[in-house]
Amino acid sequence: MRRDPSSDFSSGPELSDELRLLCMLHNIGATASERSLTLQQISEWTRMETPALRSYLQKLIELGYVQFIQIEGMDKYHLTLDGIRKVLSIYS
Amino acid sequence: MLTWEFPPRVVGGIARHCSGLARALAQDGHEVHVVTLDFPGAPAYEEMEEVKVYRTVTELGHPNFLTWVLLFNHFLEKRMADISRQVEFDVLHVHDWLTAFAGISFKHYLKKPVVLTVHSTEIGRAQGLHNADSFSIDGIEWWSAYEAKKVIVTSHSMKREICDHFHLPWDKVEIIPNAIDVTKFNASVDSGAVRARFGVGWGEKLVLCVGRLVPQKGVEYFIRAIPMIAQRYPEAKFIIVGEGWWRDYLEGVAQSTGHRWKILFTGFVSDADLVALMSSADVLVVPSIYEPFGIVALEGMATGVPVVSSQVGGLAEVIEHDRTGIFVYPKNPESIAWGVDRVLSNPEHARWLTQNAREIIHKTYSWEAVAMRTAEVYKEVVE
Lengths: 92, 383
What we know:
The structure holds two protein chains of two kinds. By secondary structure, chain A is an alpha+beta fold. Helix content of chain A is about 45%, strand content about 15%. Chain A is globular, with a radius of gyration of 13 Å. In chain B, the strands form three sheets. In chain B, strands 10-9-8-11-12-13 form a six-stranded parallel beta sheet, with helices on both faces. In chain B, helix 2 runs parallel beside helix 3 (about 100-110) and helix 7 crosses helix 10.
């Protein structure tokens, strides 16, 4: 069952907020270190508030789906291979 | 060939299908170009056993799933435009709706026929159309089937489903079953070492379930069968292979059985580990509630593990009850427990099932046979 992470209305089992965020990060292209995004950029794309975003990202890092990196002193995030596979399994 | 997944970008059965088909077509003398999406670590272009593979980066993104699909189709089109300046295509083979936009555009641009393989439908996957995106995907699926000159499906049940749902002419749809690389699943495996690596001790039964962790795969019903199986076989261990958005929920269900410590969720595993686990298991359970084909059952049959499967969709055509596997009722934990017991309680019968299953696999489900039939479809649409 395909769950659209940004769908306005839906029914049936829902994705958790963390997985919704993971899907959005994938769809906006944060799938490699050179395409990683800052918290600010992710917030602009997803319209999520920074505190919630920080907490979801932490959970995704713990699950091994998101990698945190520092590039030129900036904190950035991108999906890991497991994170990409997780999203694709949601879309299949 | 246009596909959104191609190894190493492997999610479900489409990547394996496209890879097997493309290689077999190339071996048969056809020139095969696969245009697909990129994957970290995979080259933008490579030749895999004479198949030319082009991986495309999607330079623009959008959080919305459908918008993202439209965007990556644009980049696929761009890549195909580059390729078509050097290669003259005869047929465009599109796999599922996700790459349909690029395929349809190129059909009109190149004036070449499109063959569409429908691996599953939105209405089947979601067991209904529950939201705006589902309705839209359903429409795209209909549109791509309309634009295609021929539609290929992998089972009679899928042919019935798409002819009924999309009102397709019966003779527009060809059934060509899926296949597997038998040699890959016939590997010699040190079962003791594999079982030890996955925490299964000597003398313990290994009950394996393989499938994406999404509702249509029915893994929930397998987990709910575990207490019944464990009552009869207290030494049994249960391994669930696959990843998916329902994993948290399923782990919760596993917790509620009281047998959580006997259940291992492996997540995604490599092909080598999948073969090793199947070759080392005492029984493979395929509890799907919707399954257009059911390639996992074929893979299990090829490794020689007895297969217990729900009697739905393509699975009902792949397996013959009590001859090449055991059928159980879908969404029915009691029935799954019965099927597992039927295999575990009678090793001699289980061996007979696996011998019959292997014979069928070798005769019917080879990539060479599938490539030959697919090439016939290509020939028909080109004429």
